[in-house]
Amino acid sequence: MNHKAWAIHFIYAGVILLLAGGQMYAVESYQLTPSATKFLAHNVGPGPETARGAINHFMVNSNTGVRETITPPGWVAWAALSAGAVLSVHGGMLIANKR
Questions:
Q1: Residue 97: helix, strand or coil by DSSP?
Q2: What is the pTM of this model?
Q3: Alpha-carbon gap, residue 31 to 18, rounded angstroms
Q4: How far apart are CA 41 and CA 32, in angstroms?
Q5: Orientation angle between helical segments 3-26 and 74-97, nearest 10 degrees
Q6: Contact 32, 70 (CB under 8 A)
Q7: What whole-number distance in Å separates Cα of residue 1 and Cα of residue 37?
Q8: Where are the beta strands (DSSP E) in 1-99?
Q9: Minimal CA–CA distance to 88: which of 23, 25, 13?
Q10: For the segment 55-83, what is each residue's pLDDT rounded down to a tens digit?
C-alpha cells in the first residue's frame, strides 16, 4: 500500500473517533435494548455459577424487559476527541508532505 492510502486511513479513523467522542460528550448514558442486555449477560458478564451471575441470568431470562444502562466516564469522550484530532491532523500532514 502506498503512503497516500495510509494517510486516508488515518483521516477516516480520526473522523470516526471525532464523531464517537462528540456523541459520548453529548449523551450522558446509553440504554440498551433487552436483546442487547441478554447478549451481554450471557457473553460478557459473570458466569451463572457465581451468585451475581445467577441473579443476572435469572433477571434477563425472566422476560421482564430488563434494560442495561451504560454510563461512560467523562474522560472517554475527551480521549476519543483527542485521538481523533491527532489522527486526522497526522493524515492531513502525510498528504501535505506527499510522503
A1: helix
A2: 0.71
A3: 22
A4: 12
A5: 160
A6: yes
A7: 40
A8: 30-31, 69-70
A9: 13
A10: 777 777 777 777 878 899 989 999 999 99
